[in-house]
Amino acid sequence: MKVLVIAAHPDLASSRVCRHWLQDLQQQPQVTVHDLAARYPDGALDIAHEQALLLQHDRYVLLFPLYWYSAPALLKHWMDQVLLPGFAYATGGDKLHGKQWVICTSVGSSERAYRAGGYNHFTLDELLRPLQQSVNYTGGIYLPPFSLYRSIVASEDDIARSSARLQQYVLGDFNPVREHDQLVTDSMGALQQRFLQAAALAGAAQ
């Protein structure tokens, strides 16, 4: 599987987490790291090049720090310019059907803050819904996001451990349908085992 990492950090030099993540991902032979800010300092995208990159890869990783409960403007600009009708949606726009998308983001607050009743009220999944729906609209497969909370105060060891997990996550064999089917199979097996145990106990009590 060929993986395209689309880095949307506006100032990667100032980043500890995203920069570390990208440096480690660059060591993986099946990964292409594409730093939008570095390639397009003036914001003028080469749309044909961007679309060709998408076609050459199977899984896309959108990597960015969470800005005001969303992605940086750089990523929105890329989506507006690249995911065009006839390519990503509308008539003839089936080029990204079946492609996998993973969001990887660093988050300043704690995970406890991102839930109902927490300081930020909403979960990260809820806040990322616009991106999820954009993936759905292109016929893509939206995979569960990867995140590092408390990124501002994370130690170097914390960041290194998260980077190791990220590489496994990004390169892993995700299949939500298969995982669900396996859960159903395991659940049915567990229920059957409990039924047999209960029947055996009832028989012994007689």
UniProtKB/TrEMBL annotation:
<dbReference type="InterPro" id="IPR003680">
    <property type="entry name" value="Flavodoxin_fold"/>
</dbReference>
<dbReference type="Pfam" id="PF02525">
    <property type="entry name" value="Flavodoxin_2"/>
</dbReference>
<dbReference type="InterPro" id="IPR029039">
    <property type="entry name" value="Flavoprotein-like_sf"/>
</dbReference>
<feature type="domain" description="Flavodoxin-like fold">
    <location>
        <begin position="1"/>
        <end position="169"/>
    </location>
</feature>
<protein>
    <submittedName>
        <fullName>NAD(P)H-dependent oxidoreductase</fullName>
        <ecNumber>1.-.-.-</ecNumber>
    </submittedName>
</protein>
<dbReference type="GO" id="GO:0016491">
    <property type="term" value="F:oxidoreductase activity"/>
</dbReference>
<dbReference type="InterPro" id="IPR046980">
    <property type="entry name" value="KefG/KefF"/>
</dbReference>
<keyword id="KW-0560">Oxidoreductase</keyword>
